[in-house]
Amino acid sequence: MSEGASTGELTHERRRAVLRQSWSVGIATGLYGVSFGALSVAAGLDIWQTQALSALMFTGGSQFAFVGIVGTGGLAAAPAAIATATMLSIRNGLYALSTRRFLAPEDGRFHPLRKASAAQLTIDESSAVGLAQPEPPASRIGFWHTGIAVFLFWNLMTLVGALAGSVIGDPKTFGLDGAAVAAFLALVWSRLKSAEARLTALGAAVLALVTVPFVPAGVPVLVAALAAVFFGLRGATAGATAPPPDPAKDGDPVP
Predict the structure, then answer these.
(1) Which residues fall within 8 angstroms of residue 176, CB to CB, at 6 or more apart?
(2) How far apart are CA 212 and CA 192, in angstroms?
(3) Residue 121 exposed, middle or buried by CB count within 10 Å (0-12, 13-18, 19+)
(4) Quick check: 142 pLDDT over 90?
(5) In angstroms, rounded to a whole number, what is the distance separating the alpha carbons of residues 47 and 88?
(6) Percent of the chain with pLDDT over 90
(7) How many Cβ atoms sit within 10 Å of the Cβ of residue 160?
(8) Mean pLDDT, the chain, as a whole number?
(9) Distance from CA of residue 6 to its chain's centroid?
(10) Residues whose CB is less than 8 angstroms from the CB of residue 83 and which lie 6 or more positions away in sequence, other chains included
(11) The dihedral of CA 85, 87, 91, 97: what is its sign?
């Protein structure tokens, strides 16, 4: 690493390259917000509720799971929807184990506002761009600008999708009542690359289907998620410590 990089200096060209990468990723990712906005309204949430989810929850996989469950079971399924969304967002906390090394001040003391902002913006894309940079200053620029770009465009496009979805009317007319579930399945499908992952998904799906007739809407999804955790822990090597997830490989195509 160069001396300039270690002291916090980046050349103008290097800074521009990181900014270009950050905002390119942010804009491309933010466009997916259109689909979430439309699906959320189709699931029964109003525009303000949809916008609040994107602004406050701000993690795509969890948002799709939440509206999919609520769309199926209504408000009665809200506890299961919240539990499932929370489990899916745990990976963002694990990313912080890696991003802290370039985000933490030298004295280790985060300003409360800066710490809260970093927590909110710790998503797949900001972590991936930040960790991809070889210089700590570039990592910080990549993390913050990617996170801000995704946040702005994700929320903007969520509003566009929600407004468009509200014009459509009854979601069943166009088959959109099941679109949120389909979108979530699309997110999961990209992760089923190993035989172990496919078997875990199959076992969780079977348990969910078996419990559907006996429990309220949303609970089968939570049962499936807990089963997946159980299978994952059982298959882990005894005494082994898994590294934090790699956002470039393990992340969702949405925040």
Answers:
(1) 38, 39, 42, 165, 168
(2) 23
(3) buried
(4) yes
(5) 24
(6) 31
(7) 14
(8) 80
(9) 32
(10) 222, 225
(11) positive
User: E strand or H helix at 247, and its extent?
Assistant: helix 247-250
Q: Higher pLDDT residue, 178 or 23? A: 23
Give yes or no for residue 2 having a pLDDT over 50: no
pLDDT confidence of 5, banded at 50, 70, 90? very low
Amino acid in position 11? T
Q: What six digits make up the tokens of 214? A: 């006996």
Q: Report residue 95: phi and psi, to 5°.
A: -60, -30
The pLDDT of residue 244? 55
pTM of the model: 0.72
How far apart are alpha carbons 208 and 90 in whole angstroms? 21
Rg of the chain taking only CA atoms, in angstroms: 20
pLDDT at position 238 is 41
| Residue 175 zone, left/alpha/beta (φ > 0; ψ -120 to 50; rest) | left
Is-contact 76 210, C-beta < 8 A? no
Angle ∠(63,119,1) on CA atoms, nearest 5: 120
Q: Where are the alpha helices (DSSP H) in 7-75?
A: 12-30, 33-42, 47-52, 60-73
* One-letter-per-residue 3-state SS of 58-92: CCHHHHHHHHHHHHHHHHHHHHHHHHHHHHHCHHH
C-alpha to C-alpha distance for 50 and 163, rounded to whole angstroms:
10
Tokens encoding 209: 């289907």
Which residues lie closer than 8 Å to 111 by C-beta, 6 or more apart? none
